[in-house]
Amino acid sequence: MKTITINNFTIPVRLTASARRKRSIAMQIDQQWVHIRTPLRFRMQDVDAFLQKKQHRILKHWQKAQQKATITNDFVKGDAIPFLGKNYPLDLVHGWSTKWSLELLHDRFQLTLPKNTNESQIGELMQKYLKKRYMQQSKEIISREVIRCEKEFGCSVQEIYIKNYKAKYGQCIWQEVFFSYKIVQFPLCIIRHIVCHELAHIEHKNHGPHFKALLRQMDPETPKHEQRIRENGIMLE
Ligand SMILES: [Zn+2]
Predict the structure, then answer these.
(1) What Å distances lie between residue 183 and 36, 167, 234, CA to CA?
(2) Is the pTM of this model over 0.70?
(3) Residues 45-88: pLDDT tens digits?
(4) How far is the CA of 81 from the centre of ligand 1 (A)?
């Protein structure tokens, strides 16, 4: 793994070369690494020069990402479940029936495992149940927000899809909107902003001034919310 060292911090760098990228180098920073996207043909010295030039920014965002509870696939890290911007402790219970459940009880999540669950399966099952639960919750929460936006701003959505995106929160194709189920880990104001962003794309496909004006109208706190999202290192598409 390639790394970059800035002020005694060694930060992993992940490189992806993509045919879709024509010339420029793109960067995303999260709590795991600096992700660099390059065109298919690139020179390592250009990547190194890019990293050198951006080192101040890399360090700043990477340190911030370390401090934050960010979106992660590893839901059970530290036995805490991020949900709507808060981290909840997770309690594991071995159940008496063949059913599992995951409930929020008095500020703690309680995961009840099916009876006879093998110790070695617990990690895998936890991931599976949490993902399922996040999927259900995000469908509910996002649908509610979409309906609210439709009423308030007269947008018209044909279909809402909840997806397992790796590096984006949402997408809009014509009148269909797609969201990462993981956004349910964010505070509601950020979920709202992400919904507004994608719904504004029904009207304006790019991020030009018309799009920006509409988004600002839908979410007056757009600059604050965009900054919060930027600090988490993943860009909206
Ligand atoms: Zn966008």
Answers:
(1) 23, 11, 12
(2) no
(3) 889 999 999 999 999 888 877 765 344 334 444 467 888 888 88
(4) 28
